[in-house]
Amino acid sequence: MSTEAESTERYSHGHHESVLRSHTWRTVENSAAYLIPHLVPGASVLDVGCGPGTITVDIAGRVAPGDVVGVDAAGDVIEKASALGVEHGVANVAFTVGDAYALDFDDDTFDVVHAHQTLQHLARPVDALREFRRVVKPGGVVAARDVDYAGTVLFPLSEGLAEWAALYQRVHRSNGGEPDAGRRLQAWAHAAGFGKVVTTASVWAFANDTDRTWWGGMWADRVLQSAFAADAVGKGFATQADLERISQAWSEWSVNPDALMMMPHGEILARD
């Protein structure tokens, strides 16, 4: 990597329990519904940035007997994903440590290459999409879904949550990523050389008591204990007192029966 942004590329959230708590909630239904028509029995699928593997294992169940491979840069998370596959008795899924820019697969290997919340954390998302294009078969599809943080709606927007939104942008970008990736996916796919790109959007909504308690509680912990917290303080973007105030704001939001969070996501299905 040659630029300063690329040299600092790092996953902003880390893999603290409060982060994995949100990742393990993800399924095809709530995080990749746009891809369901392409998850047909016998399809081969590569899931890049698979994390703890909940989406990957779900995909494997849908495309069996097709082979599914999950790739992530973090070895400890790959261990968790592998254990999940064994726990669910899914025989057609495998997990491996890998690099999104240099995948260890031949050209034209997979029917589907999928990446959920991955491109936003990469300094060179267009290069990654070119690599996905290399390993997808002719006639296959590259699918990506990413949040757009600047479009997130928080109600009520307290001072603490407004601080969180601004701080999140600074921390994420300091690690070489793009927190507003959702709006850029189509442009990135065109830049990567795809000839046909279908773009859609969907929203995560946290509005009922269960979802608010879970999501707000998770961020109340994450803002104090995850890699995000270490970066915020270590890079001089916030003080520990600032983080305590933001954490308290999330805790208060999580028990407010009128509170709502909507997180918009861009989605692409890209082909040559």
Task: Give a verbal description of the structure.
There is one protein chain. By secondary structure, the chain is of the alpha/beta class. Helix content is 41%, strand content 22%. It has a single domain (4-271), classed as Vaccinia Virus protein VP39 (Rossmann fold), CATH 3.40.50.150. Helix 5 (75-87) links the parallel strand 2 (68-72) and strand 3. Helix 7 crosses helix 11. Residues 1-7 have low confidence and may be disordered.
Uncertain residue segments: 1-7
Gyration radius, rounded: 18 Å
CATH architecture: 3-Layer(aba) Sandwich
Helix-strand sequence: HHHEHEHEEHEEHHEHHHE
Helical amount: 40-55%
The count of strands amounts to: 8
Q: Please indicate the percent range of residues in DSSP E strands (runs of 2 or more).
A: 15-25%
The level 1 CATH classification is Alpha Beta
Q: How are the SSEs placed, and which strands pair?
A:
Elements: H1 4-7, H2 17-23, H3 28-31, E1 45-48, H4 54-63, E2 68-72, H5 75-87, E3 93-97, E4 110-116, H6 125-135, E5 136-147, E6 153-155, H7 159-174, H8 185-191, E7 196-206, H9 209-225, H10 227-234, H11 240-254, E8 260-271
Parallel strand pairs: 1-2, 1-4, 2-3, 4-5
Antiparallel strand pairs: 5-8, 6-8, 7-8
